[in-house]
Every structure is written in C-alpha cells, then in structure tokens.
TrEMBL record:
Pfam families: AAA_14, DUF4143. Residues 11-129 form the AAA domain. It comes from the Bacteria. SUPFAM superfamilies: P-loop containing nucleoside triphosphate hydrolases. Residues 167-323 form the DUF4143 domain. This is ATPase.
Amino acid sequence: MYTRILKPPHRKSFFLFGPRGTGKTTWLKTQFPQALYFDLLNAEVYNDLLARPHRLAQMIPETWQDWVVLDEVQRVPELLHEVHRLIESRHLYFALTGSSARKLKRGEVNLLAGRALTSFMYPLTAEELGRDFKLSHALRFGHLPLTFQEHDPKRYLESYVTTYLREEVQQEGLTRNLGAFSRFLEVASFSQAQLLNISTVARECAVHRKVAESFFSILEDLLIAARVPVFTKKAKRRMVMHSKLFFFDAGIYRALRPRGPLDTPEDIDGAALETLIFQEVRAINHYYQFGYEIFFWRTANGQEVDLVLYGPRGIIGIEIKRSARITDEMFKGLNVFMKDYPM
C-alpha cells in the first residue's frame, strides 16, 4: 500500500470524488480507522437507506463523536438532506465519497455548501510510487493502484472497462442505448490527447451529435474523462476553439483503444505519455493546492503547446514528446508561445 499525498481536512466534513478504483476507500480507512462506515455498494445498506434515508440518524449512536463515512454517496443522493441536518444538529463530521457527480449535480450538493469541502482522488502519482515508478508500466497499464497488485494488470483494466464503465452506465440508467455507448467509447479513445470534434465522433458512432455530446457528459460525470480547454487569454493569434479530450488514466485509455495492424507504437504510446503527464500534473496541482488552471495552446495554423498551466504563480508551458532524440523542431510551438507570453 502506498502513502498518498492527499491529506484530510482538520475537523471539517468533506466530499472525496474520484473514479472507481483510485483508492478512495483504502485512503479513508487509513485516515479514519475508527470511523463509523456505511458502504452504499453493500446491497443491504443501500436498500435500507434508499427506502428510509432518515434511518441514518438512528444508525449513528447518540454519543458518537468520531467521523462518519458514507462511501459512494451518489447512489442515494437523498442522504445529503440527513447529512446536512446531522452536521447542524449533532455537529458530526462526515467524509462522503463519490465516483459519479451526475446525481449530486441535481441540486443536492448545494445543501452542504459551506459545510463540506470538496477534494479529489486521482490515480497514483510518481511521487507516491517512489522507486516503484516505471515508465514502461505507466504507459502500458497506467497508475490505478490495483494494476500494481494484480497478477494480470491488462485483464484487470479490460474488466474495469467492460464491467464497471458499461455496467455502471446501465445500472444508473444513464443511457438506454448501451450498444451505441460501447461503440462511442472505442471511437472516443481515438480522440485521446487530441482536438475533440464531437460531430466527427457522432458520425463514426452513427448517432446524432446531441447523443454523442450526452455520452461525453456521462464520461465527465463519472469522472472518467475531462475536456481541457484551449488557452485564449489575451490571445495574439487566431486560436482553435475545440477542447482536448483526456481519459483519466493512461491504462484506461490503452484498454479502451482498439489496436490494429496499421497502428504504430508511436500512435498509441505518444497519447499514453501525454495522458500520463496530464494525470500527474492534475493530481499534483490539486494535492498541493497550487491553484493552476490547466489548458493547452494551439493556433489555427497548427502551432501547439501540449499543456499550459495558468494561475497565481504564473504561466507554465509544457511540451510532451516521446522520442529517442531531442531536436530544436520539437520546441517550435513552445518558442512561439513564449513570444506571446514571456515567462
């Protein structure tokens, strides 16, 4: 088990969001070993609290003063009413985890505004892995914790994609057309670390553009993918308007991405490396509260910087290349960017 960088807030209730399998539950049990724990993936607990959310108060002893953990709280959003009341009336501290923000977006989270902080758990970072970090493993299998424990990490990732992604979508009733969604996942994987053209994805999936847009929203709500916007602040050149797409982990991207005889290692490994850097930057930025917003920069004529960090500490441009040799040509986009934004 690896020591995570993320630290819990001091005596303050909080939400902990993150994709399934990133280690939220393990982290909580390490940080709060004495907490009263309710696992909403447990059918008995789920059914009981779904039918009678008010029973939560009865299940917490009157004299209880330690933490209360609600794992996968998005499964019963109505519990947040009760959590809100218990924070106010009994001054309890709650840790609320979620692997989906979709149901909680429907106004329920606002009940806890100001009473619960929000934090995120991401795949393991190179810093957390220490000597166990290996670039070859990261590019093939990513950094989900179980890929370092499973005998066959490739099969685990394939199971994650087929069992979790597709079944979670089906169970949550996020779309009725599971076949189209499965095709969409494969097509979307070709957009990894690339400009996202939703119309093109829709056409290749044989669905309407609005359907493809809704599928992308599902991925974002499940915290499986993120869209990175183009950096346009005080732009001096004509910029592209499309966002970039990133699945949250290089291993998940590799598991989704079909591979055929015309694919070269550079096609897949290049996107995997850019994904790895993106997930590392996003995690470190959050854990250490650096406060950067994450963008990329690309002009209409193709000059590009892979990632741009913009925040109170300044502007950072990051160029990502997978090559045995470094040449001046690789920094062409970065040099143009630095002329527009001297750092």
